[in-house]
Specification:
single chain; 303 residues; alpha+beta; Fructose-1,6-Bisphosphatase, Chain A, domain 1; D-Maltodextrin-Binding Protein, domain 2; 2 domains; five-stranded mixed sheet; 8 helices; globular
């Protein structure tokens, strides 16, 4: 089991960083819950859930408030930090001026599942991941409506409530593909995904918004598999990094359909292809079934 000292940059005390992230995570959850309910947001942020249509979907005052709140906490505690920061709110996937070539980089998605947030489904999350040399070493996934704060350090994954009481991840005991439960996207589905799902031969599926909510369902043992096919809008690095970190820390897998690991390079911020997350035991079978199915559904598709 990795200790915080082994995961975080030299000179950054793990206990201090974890305490800051806990506090910031719950404060950010309070911000989103207030905006979702039409209440006055805490910590001096402006009232009113203004929404603008960005190039990749809606952007709200709630996104911006969480972005600012989390980054201010990091800057206040580590003004000369040995890391870069990449946030959805300040970066467009087509831009090339970003810090991913640095040794340590934070990836922040202040509101994953914005459409679900605006529609009131409760399926939204906050993602924060720390990359080291291009790989997620630490992940935080906050689910405000469930009041769950998930942490993933290398080799250890657990959730905490507001009282700081922790419980380890509990992946399901299902070991056959035919018994597995899929969590699929609510808003990012196309004809190819609709054709792929039945060909995986699973027991059933549930529609859930936000990648963080999907992976949390796997961590609780309520589901086993999540599949993403990049369609008109491929997921971005900040969508996947924290969910991957917590799932892998629990012993699960998150890879491309051809077995390649997810890459977080600076050339393209989009996570294109067929991405499969699972609780682990059937990962290779799932990848093989996906390869066979996609060869028939879309022969030119790059997994």
């Amino acid at each position: 089991m990795a200790s915080p000292a082994a995961v975080f940059p030299h000179g950054v005390k793990g206990d201090h960083l974890m305490a800051v992230l806990r506090r910031s995570g719950w404060e950010a959850a309070d911000l989103l819950r207030a905006y979702a309910r039409g209440q006055q947001p805490p910590y001096g942020y402006p009232p009113g859930l203004t929404v603008e249509e960005g190039r990749d979907g809606p952007v709200s005052a709630a996104d911006r408030a969480v972005h600012r709140h989390v980054l201010q906490a990091l800057a206040r505690n580590w003004p000369h930090a040995p890391w870069g920061i990449l946030s959805e709110e300040t970066t467009h996937p087509d831009h090339r001026d970003h810090p991913l070539d640095q040794e340590w980089v934070w990836l922040l998605d202040p509101l994953d599942g914005t459409r679900d947030f605006l529609e009131g489904t409760g399926h939204y999350a906050i993602h924060l991941a720390l990359l080291h040399k291009g790989r997620p070493r630490f992940g935080l996934v906050m689910l405000p409506e469930r009041e769950e704060l998930w942490f993933g350090l290398e080799g250890r994954c657990w959730r905490e409530n507001r009282q700081g009481i922790g419980r380890p991840a509990q992946l399901s005991g299902r070991r056959r593909c035919e018994d597995l439960i899929l969590v699929a996207s609510r808003n990012h589905r196309d004809e190819r995904l609709e054709a792929l799902i039945p060909r995986l031969g699973l027991a059933g599926s549930r529609s859930v918004g936000s990648v963080g909510c999907k992976v949390a369902a796997i961590l609780r043992g309520e589901a086993d598999v999540y599949v993403s096919l990049s369609g008109r809008s491929a997921p971005k690095h900040w969508d996947m990094a924290a969910p991957e970190a917590v799932l892998r820390a629990a012993g699960g897998c998150f890879r491309h359909g051809d077995g390649r690991p997810l890459a977080y390079g600076s050339g393209d911020l989009r996570q294109r292809g067929c991405l499969i997350a699972s609780h682990g035991p059937c990962q290779e079978q799932l990848e093989a079934r996906a390869r066979t199915a996609m060869a028939a559904i879309d022969p030119g598709f790059v997994l």
